[in-house]
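Note on ligand handling. Small-molecule inputs were canonicalized before submission; formal charges were left as drawn, and no protonation-state enumeration was performed. Where a ligand contained multiple stereocentres, the stereochemistry in the source SMILES was retained. For LNIPZVSO, this procedure yielded the string shown in the input block below.
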Amino acid sequence: MARYELVKRSVALITLTNPPVNALSSPVRHAIANSMERALSDPKVRAVVICGENGRFCGGADIREFAGPLRGPPLIPVLEAIEAGDKPVVAAIEGMALGGGFELALFCHYRIAQSKARLGLPEVTLGILPAAGGTQRLPRLIGIPAALEMITTGRHISAQEALKLGIVDQVTDQNACETALEFALKAVGKPLSPRRVSTLTTPCPPDLDALLEAATMQVKKKTPGVMAPLACIQAVRAAATMPYSKGMKQESELMATLFNSGQARALQYCFFAQRTAGKWTLPSGAQWNNSKPREIRSAAVIGLGTMGRGIVVSLARVGISVIAVESEKKLLENGRQMVIGMLERDAKRRGVSASLNLLKFTLSLQDLKDVDLVIEAVFEDMALKKRVFQELSKVCRPGTLLCTNTSGLDVDALAGVTDRPHLVAGMHFFSPAHVMKLLEVVCGPRSSSETIATAMSLGKKMGKVSVAVGNCPGFVGNRMLKPYLDQATFLLEEGATPEQIDKALEDFGFAMGVFRMSDLAGLDVGWRVRKESGLTGPDVDPKNPPRKRQGRRYCPIPDMVCEQGRFGQKTGRGWYKYDKPGDTNAKPDPLIQNLLETYRSRYGIQPRNISDQEIIERCLFVLANEGFRILEDGMAARPEDIDVIYLFGYAFPRHRGGPMFYASMVGLERVLERLEHYHQAHPDVPHLEPITMAYTGAQKALKSDKLDEAQALAKSCAGRPDFLPCDGLSICATHSHGKCFKLHWCCHLGWCHCKYVYQPMTNVAQLPSTPVPAAPSDCTDTIDLSISLTERFLRISPCFLPPPCPESPKYCNIAELFIDDYIVKRINGKMCYVQRPPIHTEAPSTPPQINPASLTPQKQHTEDKQTVEETVKGPKMGHCSSPSSSEDSGINALGGHYLESCEEESEDELSTDGHSSPGSLWDQDECTLLSPSKSIVEIIENIETTV
Ligand SMILES: CCCCCCCCCCCCC[C@H](O)CC(=O)SCCNC(=O)CCNC(=O)[C@H](O)C(C)(C)COP(=O)(O)OP(=O)(O)OC[C@H]1O[C@@H](n2cnc3c(N)ncnc32)[C@H](O)[C@@H]1OP(=O)(O)O
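Structure output:
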């Protein structure tokens, strides 16, 4: 895991050897510790160089280790030995120094970077913070503003920028290791004290408070509801205001709070899910590692609408020559100008020259005879597409791959009109195609593995997150969208308003609720598709009940809105009203309210109060349910693929992990129970019927031998304080012992749904805590977090029971903050997070009980008559959202608009468009400070923390 060599007779060269990224796993930490000890004790050694094998310094802590119990030597003492040593240690950074890898370099006395290396602290994107001293050392080295920016965004910087900031001592175009060896020898004998970053004083700007306040406001706006950036700011504040050792303590307390949070789990899941999606697999057995892609040097794009233009740009900027085809001269010229403008702007932003020489524009399909691959992006009309494919089949050389950018039509029907069905596949880009990262690669029944491998590899080359999906109406993303949109409009019928539904979804974390997003995308496109598919318009049999189609519930309200010429933002009116066409500021419209009231009275619908919880459950559980159906149908290989599609294509909040992950966090049994409940209430909505596979999966899991084994194990440990009933969120005992039973897919991830789990316990004395402020004005951000948490508990306080042994809460559990596992207590004058006590169902006089893992009403509640007002209000995270403005792609094949997210041409995975929700849990104005005496949170003043 690390090689030790003596080179140049007096330099110890320590090479990290843990492919692929030399992550700091337990054996690597061991090896570094041993190697340093050896180097420091060997009199022949006068200096040390640390580098990484295969041109990669270090990708940081081994993220996979975070899912299990922490083993091996802790990282910080290993790194401290490097700094404390009396021999100069030089980090030779090639490739990357990220996270813990960057922190390792910061403990070295000198840093040399190869000119192509990238450095950064991306922990925040994983829901944690740089907890091996990164938050304390970087501000000391480069000052607060620059460190704050790097730590709160996770941005990777170049070697040149690192030199400019003072992070590295030298940048070389040569081998960094060779350069570092020379450098190390020259450093021998020079004083080491000034090189020890821990001894430096953080340059403290006079306006520190204002700076941190501005940073706080910025991250709250950019990533509302996300905890890690706020914790990062608190840690940086500590670097500015505390001595190093105290700052380190603060850093580790903050890390402990984040480490087991649901957000960290979700974000780390997203990291691996994205990489898993690249390892595609088909029902035929063909997969990423047994199918060879073809090299694509030239391509053609047919249609220069919004989608076509974006695809041309995506291809050209990675060096593929592109022939762009349009049907009319005017359209061609217009498309040409727009593509050139886009490429020029893109090149300017990236500091490269625009690859305009790769482009050719033509009106003739004949020009395509020699290209390697064609992507058709014409109007979403099967007859038209078939004509194009027939023509392509005649014109293109026999080996040319023919792909379609349809957003949901039958790819096999197109394959069928060609002479090469095995070379036909779908490449479903999301709008705008040069910005959006998602690509669904649609595998038809006749698509060859080579065709899929080529489309996947081309997607990767274009910088897309490509996911292989099956050929069914709407594929994966748009297929799931249909039931989601249906639920939203059914909820309108039943009594909700567009703004209420949007707010619930935005509080959950979506940047825009479904109605605001539909207004942005334009309502007319969906209306046209619904008319074409006979769901509305003159073709509908007048005898057909207005609220039924094909025996299923149908909501005609969206059609009625369109009939009034309300097409969304572009017409200044849609589900909302706008000051003028094109305006983005959505305001509730009394006319829509009237329309809804008239509609309800026309159909005799008694409006009822609908809770946010019902909105979230119906919209999101139905999404996951359709995901299970898709898995059962074999249209997606894994739940991760579905989640990746929703994260990158539909702006699902990343800190929620995706619809499938979210369902697993809630608990599949719970999701199934709620779906059954809603389906009973709405039997004419088939999408609410729980999918058999998931249901039987859950039943099977309950009967599994492996589960029996786990339960037997757990029961044998009965009475041990570290075994608790499973909250559906923690790591199960069997999993951490390597005996994961895989009946639930989530077990693959390490969060199991077995009944008993091993709970890593934390002594009360080590809880993240903060002094209770004397007055509200003393509020710190930590208190801010605590108070927010307290407020949240207060909202649902009737559901709490006193802890089983309040006099002796020796152990607490630092886990999911947002699934309400925690209460905030004042213990010995400090605010602490304390795990919520288990609920005793047998207690006769208790208030209504809830499942700790979710805040849903009890089974006997009806939608009309809810007695418990719990709402699933959680943090939210905005994503930039983009409408599909093109007619050729803005709608799914089933007649609904699809929601698409973009990254605003930015690589920042946490970036958002800044839409803030006033209802966000962490919003400043909702976070009024409660004095502990005013709160009904239990106050425990005199606990012996040593009990
Ligand atoms: C009460 C409880 C208290 C708890 C306290 C706990 C304290 C715990 C310890 C504290 C110490 C903290 C140390 C540190 O601050 C934390 C970290 O370092 S977190 C990690 C930070 N690093 C990153 O985020 C980098 C992540 N990786 C990347 O961005 C990219 O992989 C890359 C390095 C830029 C390389 O990109 P590519 O070349 O494109 O390659 P891939 O991305 O496809 O990756 C290849 C392969 O490697 C796997 N991988 C990458 N990085 C890691 C990693 N850090 N750990 C584990 N595995 C990693 C990746 O998954 C791929 O695997 P494959 O898919 O091929 O199986």
